[in-house]
Amino acid sequence: MIKMRSQAKILVVDDNPDVLNLLRQVITQAGHAVRVATDGDQALKLAAREDFDLLITDLIMPGKEGVETILAFRKKYPRTRIIAMSGGGNTASAQDLLGIVQCMGVASTLAKPFSRDELLTRINGELAMQA
Q1: Do residues 62 and 38 touch, judged by C-beta distance below 8 A?
Q2: Can you tell me whether residue 60 is helix, strand or coil?
Q3: Which domains does the chain have, with CATH numbers?
Q4: What is the pLDDT of residues 90-111, one digit of tens each?
Q5: Do residues 21 and 42 touch, judged by C-beta distance below 8 A?
Q6: Residues whose CB falls within 8 Å of the CB of residue 126, separated by 6 or more in sequence, listed in order
Q7: What's the start-to-end Cα distance of the chain, in Å?
Q8: Alpha-carbon Rg of the chain, whole angstroms?
């Protein structure tokens, strides 16, 4: 069992409802407050109304995709920690995409599929960096 710090507010962005529901369940069970968005535009609207400790975003999404979302968060909310996740795309592997976003201030990445423990370890690490 991964030990987590006290409750954090986490925003999860993914266009796949099954992924969103699973991540919400795992993160909520770990004791954190979770909000979800299906694209970057929706995430930025939520962030304009609420403060989040952590953003977890997929990279390949319709509408405002992950790279654009990360750049917007870096500009508007520079203190928000970010975890990028990807299963890859038509022209690039997950590792290629995740490597690119590390140059944009993303400290943690997750290649899909990932385990519950991998997710909680990354979340714990990012939240510890805020403390």
Answers
A1: no
A2: coil
A3: 9-126 (3.40.50.2300)
A4: 667 767 777 778 878 887 999 9
A5: no
A6: 54, 81, 82, 83, 107, 108
A7: 21
A8: 13
